[in-house]
Amino acid sequence: MAGKSGDGDVWVWVALDSDSKVVISYLVGDRSAGCAYEFIGDLAGRVVKRIQLTSDGYFAYPNSVLASFGHDVDYGVLIKVFGPDASENSNERRYSPGTCNGSRKVKQLGMPDRRYISTSYVERQNASLRLFNKRFSRLTLALSKRLINHQHAVFLHYFAHNFMRKCRTIGTTPAMAAGIADKVWTADDLISALEDEEQKLAKGGRINREDRS
């Protein structure tokens, strides 16, 4: 990430329910074990029954899941094996994913159903994040220059994803499909809710100019 603050690389950690498509938890942070623990801990606090969970092969996930869920989870890991891109152009290889040569499913905790050990849904969500949020586009001037603004943009994206945008595969918003909303929210609803919250917390005080998105 560019900017005087020197925040460097920033990642978005996302947990998605494959049935309702609701984003249960997300975190904007670095790619450290500490962020993995924080992210999985938040996820565990938001689910009320035993779930089947899938992650990629990142090293920090298994310990984070065990620390947050204990053994009350069916957890599997999908490890994809990538090979070099067929292109001979080094610049093309730099900005293109490698070729996936295969994958393997690994049981970590509980009794995960191998048929549902998959990261396809969250990978599709990642594509939507890049499509609807220009800050994630490579080689453009739209990149975030302040971490706080980037975090705000991600919040707005996932609020719209959960509460405002209807998913074509389920015919309604993810929040309504998950039973946590009773209507499709509009931008006016969001603005009203934010204004009400600002009045409660700041008592009408001004927002710091540097914190504006």
Describe this structure as you would to a colleague.
The radius of gyration is 19 Å and the shape is globular. The chain has one domain. Helix 1 runs parallel beside helix 2. The mean pLDDT is 88. It contains seven helices and five strands, in the order ββαβαβαβαααα. 36% of the residues lie in helices and 18% in strands. The strands form two sheets. Strands 3-4-5 form a three-stranded mixed sheet, with helices on one face. It has a two-stranded antiparallel ribbon with strand order 1-2. By secondary structure, the chain is an alpha+beta fold. 18% of the residues are buried.
Low-pLDDT residue spans: none
Largest sheet: 3 strands, mixed
| SS-derived structural category | alpha+beta
Query: Helix count?
Result: 7
Q: Which of globular, elongated, flat, extended, rod-shaped describes the shape?
A: globular
Strand order of the largest sheet: 3-4-5
How do the SSEs run, as a string of H and E?
A: EEHEHEHEHHHH
On the 0-100 scale, what is the average pLDDT? 88
> What is the helix content?
25-40%
Rg, alpha carbons: 19 Å
Number of domains: 1
How many beta-strand segments? 5
Q: Could you tell me how far the N terminus lies from the C terminus, measured between alpha carbons in angstroms?
A: 15 Å
Task: Assess the beta-strand content as a share of residues.
Answer: 15-25%
